[in-house]
Every structure is written in structure tokens, then in C-alpha cells.
Amino acid sequence: MSVSKFVVAALAVSVSAVALGAGAHGDGHGHGQGAKSGEPGKASDAGRSFTVQMYDNYYEPESIEVKPGETVRFVVENKGSLVHEFNIGTPAMHESHQKEMMMMVEHGAIQGGKLNRDMMEMDMGNGMSMKHDDPNSVLLEPGESQEVVWKFSEKSGIEFACNVPGHYQAGMYGEVNFNSGDSRVRSLADASKSLNPAK
Ligand SMILES: [Cu+2]
């Protein structure tokens, strides 16, 4: 992890602490507010596929470039020795998800390198469970791999992140860069179009 990334992570934590203290919540000041990070995509619409490898505690690659509106297939592999998550969302979404993940650790659903999937299915008594089945994320034990197909929206400021307690703070997140003007990206886009002529 680079030093600058650590500084950014530390800054994000302190900024969100201030926001919490002020009773504020949300990720914007009007512009783009309510816009979502995207929606579940159909595999048949995915022109491109990325392999994302998860280590302790970082991703390879550390960032990806997509076009607004593009559907991308991610093949997520856990190459580390701990449980890791791949989750697509805004920093605010990751922050609130980290609280849920903390609960999963406290209840023993996540134990270092193991997931207690029976525990995750269990009713918590209030009709809720610790099921981890959101379409924008996967939670994997070491050696597991799974796919996420995601259709990105126009909204920028999206990260893929691991919300297992402590991992985001250790730098386990990466940027989704929206790029449509760059010539290299354009040629990739053209290539994906020719693979998927229906679009
Ligand atoms: Cu992790």
C-alpha cells in the first residue's frame, strides 16, 4: 500500500467521524444525490470481464476504468489467507456496510479465514439475518472465487472495497475510474462493442 493511500484512508475516517458528530448522513451536497452506484447487470450484456484478486489486504488490480453505463463482469478470487469482500459502492455505502460486517465478526459469522455460513442464515430474532447476498458484493473464504456482474451508472466516486473490519482502513479498496475520452479506453470500448454487436 502506498503512503498516500494510507493518508487518504486516515483522512476519510476522520472526515466521516466529523460527519457523524454533526449528525449528517449521505454522500453529496445535492448534485448526484440519490444517484446509485449502478445496478445488477446481465452477464449477456457484459462486454468486458476483469479478474480481481484479493490478498491480505489489497486488490490486484488496485483500480479499474469503466465507461458510464457499462456492464462489466468481475471474476473475484480470494488469494489471501483471510475472509475478504469485493463490494461496489460509494464511500458512504462502504462505511455503513462496515458496521454490519463488524456485527458479523462479533457474532462469529466471520472468523479470520473462515465464514460460518449457517450462522449467516440464522434469524437474528428481529426478522433479520447476517446473510450476505447483495448483488453488488461477494464475501469469500480463502481459495474461493465468484462472479459479480454490475452495470455502472453515470455516478462517479465509486470504489470497490472490502468491509471486513480493519481491511478498508488498511487500504483494501480501489477506485472505479470513469473514462470515456481517453483514446486507450475508447479503443477498449470499441473492442468490447465488436465482441457484443447487439449494443
Ligand atoms: Cu479484506
TrEMBL record:
Domain Blue (type 1) copper, residue spans: 58-177
Xref: InterPro entries: BlueCu_1, Cu-binding_ET, Cupredoxin
Gene3D superfamilies linked to this entry: Cupredoxins - blue copper proteins
Origin superkingdom: Bacteria
Gene Ontology molecular functions: copper ion binding; electron transfer activity
Segments crossing the lipid bilayer: none
SUPFAM superfamilies: Cupredoxins
Region (Disordered): 25-46
Endpoints of the signal sequence: 1-19
Keywords: Copper, Metal-binding, Signal
PANTHER family in the cross-refs: AURACYANIN-B, COPPER-RESISTANT CUPROPROTEIN COPI
Protein name (database record): Copper-binding protein
